[in-house]
Amino acid sequence: MDERTREYLRGRFADYYRAAEISPPPAANEREWGHIPWTPGSGTTMVRHQSQLDLGDIGGFLTRTAPRHVYFSAARYDDPGASTMGAKGWRGADLIFDLDADHLPGVDPAETSYKEMLAACKDALRRLLSFLEADFGFTDLEIVFSGGRGYHVHARADSIQSLDSDARGEIVDYVRGRGLDTDGLIRVAAEGGATQRLLRTEGGWGRRVHDALRTMTAELRELPAADALDRLTSFEGIGEGRAETILGALEANPQAIERGNMEAGGPGIRLLADALADRVVEEHAAPIDEPVTTDTHRLIRLPGSLHGGSGLVVTPIDRAALDSFEPLVDAVPDRFTNQQISIEIETAQEVALGGDTIKLDAGVHSVPEHVGVFLMTRGDAAKAPA
C-alpha cells in the first residue's frame, strides 16, 4: 500500500471514529486491548498488552490513532496491561465463536463471490445459534458481523467464565458434531414390564436425528415398494433383507418410529439411524473456528470499529433482526456514502456493495467512497490524485 492510500484511509478512519458512538465491552477495564496501526510496507504490527488505563477513553483513543484494526480480549485479568500472559492474573473468559466463510465446507473462495460466501456463513450462523440457544440454553448472546468474511458470537454467562481450554474444546466437538455416536443418543426406558431403547427426542443431536428419521420414513411410505427398497439399500450396511424388514416395520408399527424406538423391526432401524446421523452432522453442524473458542486469552474485534481489510463496520446484530441483516448494505459506514473519490486499479474489479454492483476496468475511476475504501483496504486499488 502506497503512502497516499495509507494516509487517506487513516484520515477517513479517524473521521469515522470522531463521529461514531462505540460501546466498550463489559468490564472493559479488566481486558487486554490490542490494535494494528497503519504502518508502512506490506506487513502489519500488532500492538497489544495494553489496558484501558493505557488507552484512556476508548472513543478518544480511536479518534487519535485511527487504527487499522482494534481488538479486546475475551479474558478478564487482574492486570491486563502486564507484558506477559503469566503476569496478567487470569480471572475468566467469555466464550467466543467465530465463523469464517473461508473455512466453510463446500465453499471455495476462488470460485465463490464475497456476497455468496457471506450468505453461506449466515446459514452456518443460524445453525450455531440453534445449538447455543436450544441445546445449551444461552441467552443474551452478542452476535456480530466481523466486518470481513464472517460472524462472531459472544457468550458471557457467569457459568462459562472459568472453563478451561479442554472444556471449551468439548463444546466445539458438540457443535461440530465431531465423534457423534448414536449410542449416546439412546436412552433405555421401561414400558409394560419390558425395556425399550429409544432415541432422545426431546432435544440435542437426538432430536435432530429423530427428525431426520421421521422425514425419511414418511418419504419411504410415499414411494413405490421397489423405489423404497432402492432408497434404503443405498445406505451402507442395509441390504435388501434388512430393507424389507424396515419397510415391514414402518407399515406395521409407524407409532414406534414416532417414539424413536430403535428396536422396531429388528436392527434395521438402528442401522438407518446410524446412517442418517452422518447426514445430520453434515447438514446441521456449525463449522466454527476451533482455536478461537478454545483460546482463553483470545483477542477479538471490537464491535463498532472498522475492519481494516474491508472498511466495513464490525456490526452488532440484534437477534430479532438477524434474518433481515444484509452485511454488504448494513455494515457500510454512513460516513463513506456521501462523496465520490478517485481510485486507480490495475485489474478489472466487480464490487457488490451498498445495494449496487459496480464493474470497473483497469485504470482511474471516480467511485462512491465506500467502494473505493473497500477496494483500497483489500489491496485492490490505490488512491488516485483528486
What does this structure look like?
The protein has helices at 3-19, 52-55, 58-65, 85-88, 114-135, 165-176, 204-222, 225-233, 240-252, 254-258, 268-284, 290-294, 327-330, 369-377, and strands at residues 33-36, 47-50, 69-73, 75-77, 90-93, 95-100, 142-145, 150-155, 186-191, 194-199, 299-301, 315-317, 340-345, 349-353, 356-360, 363-368, 382-383. The chain is built from 14 helices and 17 strands. It folds into three domains: 3-175 and 288-335, DNA primase, PRIM domain (Alpha-Beta Complex), CATH 3.90.920; 182-284, no CATH class; 337-386, Ribosomal Protein L9, domain 1, CATH 3.40.5. It has 386 residues and is of the alpha+beta class. The longest helix is centred in the N-terminal third of the chain and has 22 residues, at 114-135. Strand 14 (349-353) and strand 15 (356-360) form a beta hairpin. It has a four-stranded antiparallel sheet. It is globular and about 80 Å long. 38% of the residues lie in helices and 20% in strands.
List the helices and strands and how they pair.
Blueprint: H1 3-19, E1 33-36, E2 47-50, H2 52-55, H3 58-65, E3 69-73, E4 75-77, H4 85-88, E5 90-93, E6 95-100, H5 114-135, E7 142-145, E8 150-155, H6 165-176, E9 186-191, E10 194-199, H7 204-222, H8 225-233, H9 240-252, H10 254-258, H11 268-284, H12 290-294, E11 299-301, E12 315-317, H13 327-330, E13 340-345, E14 349-353, E15 356-360, E16 363-368, H14 369-377, E17 382-383
Antiparallel strand pairs: 1-2, 1-3, 3-11, 4-5, 6-8, 7-8, 7-12, 9-10, 13-16, 13-17, 14-15
Helix pairs in contact: 1-3, 7-8, 7-11, 8-9
